[in-house]
Design goal:
The strands form 5 sheets. Strands 1, 2, 3, 4, 5, 17, 18 and 19 form an 8-stranded mixed sheet that branches. The protein has a 4-stranded parallel sheet with strand order 11-14-15-16. The chain contains 14 helices and 19 strands. The longest helix has 17 residues. Helix content is 30%, strand content 23%. Helix 2 runs parallel beside helix 3. It has 2 domains: 95 residues, Roll (Urease, subunit C, domain 1), CATH 2.30.40.10; 307 residues, Metal-dependent hydrolases (TIM Barrel), CATH 3.20.20.140. The protein is of the alpha/beta class. Strand 2 and strand 3 form a beta hairpin.
């Protein structure tokens, strides 16, 4: 049994309840045992006392979209290295995408990931199972068995299911098991050979563009099917103003649909690509500045409910190539919170809304006992220095890959300590 711990002299922020006040938290048996306003009223004998020094104590972040190289491509990222990166960024739980080799589409593979993560990971890693066998978009997987094995959601990962009839059947089937479907919306026939946002800048660079319709057409289709089936449906990520409008309309009809956004779509735009900078080649592509602003507004008004890192490690061989040939993706676990805090410091999104999209909202989608400061919940917590200045260095990242969009970027705000089940898994001082 772990000794009790008291984290005191903290600014407690719990987005789920709206709490924002000075206080202390008592941790016993790996869970939150008591929450006190102001000074801790009493400390159990033998308890470890941790002085937060007035820093923010918040629930640990829950990231809904993380790719790793394990199993199959461990040279890019292992579960252990991804967990180290997550802990350093304040992410205490992440959902692992099934785009591995082999694909996570069978119960044995779900079980493997859970057991492997339990043995080597500092944080909680939950697998998402493939919607279709082999992610080929031809035959749906055994949802019920996958849920029993421990899969928390169903997804096609990087790909989008083109067959509307198959998606309709999958949504109906998923509803029977109350499994959330998290779907990436990108029509391959409209994306074509495009490699960045369609528009004047793509033309100036001589690159083929991806129109917003490649996102809005399948998004509209998905939401119609989700509303008809009653399934719990979450659009993995949107990137443009037109998509936000489509989601707003759907939200008026049902609270069983929702959508997320990549931190990259909130912080960057197509101009960041500059002179063919492949670390900014992402999916969905970075859009125009007006679209980025629309994503921020949609987050602020509640249209977007979750923010994720879209952590997708790529090696030198796949990124140091001509822009059109380079792989999509960037690492982001360690910079997720710091980049999000840019929106807070700029006055674009209040801190409570921002943290809710990073904690309780994704936790609720997956049905987890985390993401909140609530008595009885698992003590997955983070201490945040909102004003800590630092500069991102790819050499200092814990990830095995270095394809960050934020190399050399100046940040304000950083996680200084991360707790999982009350135990310290990251301490800036170490």
């Amino acid at each position: 049994m772990d000794s009790p711990r008291v984290i005191e002299n903290a600014r407690l922020i719990d987005p789920a309840s709206g709490r924002d006040e000075p206080g202390a938290v008592l941790i016993e048996n790996k869970r939150i045992a008591e929450i006190a306003t102001g000074a801790a009223p009493g400390v159990p004998e033998g308890a470890e006392r941790i002085d937060a020094g007035g820093l923010v104590l918040a629930p640990g972040l829950v990231d809904l979209r993380v790719f790793t190289g394990e199993p199959g491509h461990e040279y890019r990222e292992t579960l252990a290295s991804a967990a180290d990166a997550a802990a350093a960024g304040g992410v205490t739980t992440f959902l692992l995408m099934p785009d591995t080799d082999p694909v996570i589409d069978e119960t044995a593979l779900v079980d493997y990931v859970i057991r492997r993560a339990r043995g080597i990971s500092k944080i909680r890693i939950y697998p998402a199972a493939a919607l279709t066998k082999g992610l080929r978009g031809e035959e749906i997987t055994e949802f019920g068995l996958l849920k029993e094995a421990g899969a928390r959601a169903l997804t096609e990962g990087r790909t989008s299911l083109a067959d509307a009839g198959l998606l309709r059947a999958a949504l109906t089937y998923a509803k029977n098991f109350e499994m959330p479907v998290i779907h990436h919306v990108a029509d391959a026939s409209l994306t074509g050979d495009g490699v960045m946002n369609a528009g004047a800048f793509a033309t100036a660079l001589g690159l083929k563009g991806i129109p917003i319709e490649a996102e809005t057409v399948p998004l509209d289709r998905d939401l119609q099917l989700a509303l008809a089936s009653g399934a719990r449906y979450h659009t993995a990520q949107i990137s443009c103003a037109a998509s936000a409008d489509i989601v707003r309309r759907a939200l008026k009809r049902s609270d069983r649909v929702s959508c997320g956004v990549s931190i990259n779509s909130l912080a960057l735009n197509e101009n960041d690509i500059g002179s063919y900078r492949t670390f900014f080649k992402l999916s969905p592509p970075l859009r125009a500045e007006e679209d980025r602003q629309a994503m921020v507004a949609a987050l602020a008004d509640g249209t977007i409910s979750t923010i994720h890192s879209a952590h997708d490690p790529q090696d030198v061989e796949t990124k140091r190539r001509p822009f059109a040939e380079a792989a999509d993706g960037a690492v982001g676990l360690e910079t997720l919170l710091a980049v999000a805090l840019r929106l807070y410091h700029a006055g674009d999104v209040d801190l409570m809304t921002l943290l809710k999209a990073l904690t309780s909202s994704p936790a609720d989608l997956l049905g987890l006992e985390t993401g909140r400061l609530r008595i009885g919940d698992k003590a997955d917590l983070i201490l945040i220095d909102l004003d800590r200045p630092w500069v991102v260095s790819d050499a200092a990242l814990s990830s095995r890959s270095r394809n960050t969009c934020f190399q050399g970027a100046r940040m304000t705000g950083r996680v200084v300590r991360t707790f999982v089940s009350g135990r310290t898994v990251y301490d800036e001082a170490d």
